[in-house]
Design brief:
By secondary structure, this protein is an alpha+beta fold. It has one domain (about 5-190): Beta Barrel (Lipocalin). Helices cover about 20% and strands about 45% of the residues. It contains two helices and eight strands. It has helices at about 5-25, 85-95, and strands at about 35-45, 55-65, 70-75, 105-110, 120-130, 135-150, 150-160, 180-190. It has an eight-stranded antiparallel β-barrel. The longest helix has 25 residues, at about 5-25. The protein is globular and about 50 Å long. The termini are far apart.
Amino acid sequence: MDSSKQTQTVMKAINRFWGLALTLVSTLATAQNLHSTSTGETNFFSKTPVENITATNKKVQSILNTATGEVVVRMNMKQFDFPNKLMGEHFNESYMESDKYPTGTFKGKINEKIDFAKDGIYDVTSDGQFTVHGITKDRQLKGKLTVLNNVISLVSEFEVALVDHKIDVPKLVFVKIAQIVSVKNKFVYAPMNK
């Protein structure tokens, strides 16, 4: 398949995802219940004896439906910033195959009932589907949701086993890459109707 056809296929898939995500959250609630961000932050860290690897993506998109607890997250893999260019190239070309699998997503629902009209800090869990490198896994993610002065923020930490998502590490660099990667997310939501 030539690159223009691949690009068209990827764009269609991205548009379908967002269409489904928006339909999911919008059919179940009015606009005042929808909160979003396009500046969410995802960091990952891989610790090994040879070299620590860290990267940050500050353009992560998320929608939270406060009426239903549904949450969707989407990130572009090529938007991770690395300490050096070579790490980013290896991440996108050798491991994540970002041209073939350009996004990572999570679609889930917060299990706890939250009073979004009341300030507070809440321990939350969300059951859903996490997709990276084209492989979808059912996951339960834990986090803290904060409501303060009508601002909603959500932070979470979880681990991703490379083998679960068929992310291959060449034998020559196996010791340089941890087989389990720590991931941290931070989202600060704003009402979508403003």
